[in-house]
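Revision sheet: structure tokens.
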Amino acid sequence: MTGINYSILTKKEPEKSLTFHLKKKSGRNNRGRITVRHKGGGAKQKYRLLDFNSGQDKLGLPAKVLSLEYDPCRTSFIALVQYSDGEKRYILAPQDLKVGEEIICKDTAEFKPGNRMRLKNIIVGTPVYNIELAPGKGGQLVRSAGICARVLAKEGGYVNLSLPSSEVRKVLEDCFASIGSLSNPEHAFVNLGKAGRTRHLGIRPSVRGTAMNPCDHPHGGGEGRTTIGLKHPKTPWGKPALGVKTRKKKKYSDRLIISRRKKKHKK
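Predicted:
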């Protein structure tokens, strides 16, 4: 069992005005039917209201970092910042961001972790995170712990980005992105170590299809340990599984993808 070193975080309660109770859904829809399996239970959480725009509506207004905090609803750490007009907000915390530092969102800003600017003004090779896909929509790409994308080139009103998945994609040059890579890079190496920690995260046990009855799964049934008895594996609902492409054949973003992600082979 391994854990994460939280010594860099500020010892304080979360900002009350920016938190609210998160009601558990247990993977059920509005009729009480389970629509997402293997969810339920877990520790109580308070949701922190995050600003994925990182101050795009406050262009040129500096913000002071008041604290670095843990967020139970995401893998990276978050930072509480206060703008010069007095408003407080939570943002995603990049690596090497310190309490007391000032960050800013401008068309062109200093190249330091936490600052946010338009992609067309970011130097090639710079690591970025919390990237917009459409101007003014807020960050949608690269928001998990310890990751970053890199600016590869600029051409024809677009910026080419190398994403953490190894995909190379075009993004409009007027979109905003934050400088640096996200905090908590040790998250990828955490070993939960026991079933209880998984249950605390709200993840319920999953059962192999071959261990079920035929009425519960296409792989079920048979005497003893038998094969699935099918040419190809299937989902519990009879759809093809494992290796079947699920992406739409004519998706609008296909023209923006320069090279698809490469499959990682386990050693």
